[in-house]
Amino acid sequence: MLTKPFEEYEIGESWTSSGRTITESDIVNFAGVSGDFFPLHMDSEYAKQTIFKQRIAHGLLVLSIGTGLLEMSPNVIAAFYGIEKLRFIKPTFIGDTIFLELKVTDLIDKGNGKGVIAFHQEIKKQTGETVVAAEYKFLLNKKER
């Protein structure tokens, strides 16, 4: 996905990633690293009393795993540039398999051998439902001349 120099991308270009299943270990490990032990993620009895009726994955965990599904080349990416319009739309449960759908929305030449690629990213689960949507930006290297 992010494996070629800036000038080789076109607005409208799109990709779909491979999938990854969310596990209970993912949730427990993320809670330990982030310090987010909110009962909706960690307490089955609490979660049964919510609108979700079961534990859900942390939104930031799903976003992080989704980022890990991006194919990225260190020779191409100069830096992560930012996220805009981030929305957590639907819950992700233990056992859901998520994947990415990406579409290039803008290409901004920054000069000095760099450019910013902007793309709309949706993280979807096996049902086809979008669970997270955001606008991502990366600073990419141009071809060496």
TrEMBL record:
It holds the Pfam family MaoC_dehydratas. It comes from the Bacteria. Residues 15-116 form the MaoC-like domain. Gene3D superfamilies: Hotdog Thioesterase (3.10.129.10). This is Dehydratase. It comes from Ureibacillus thermophilus.
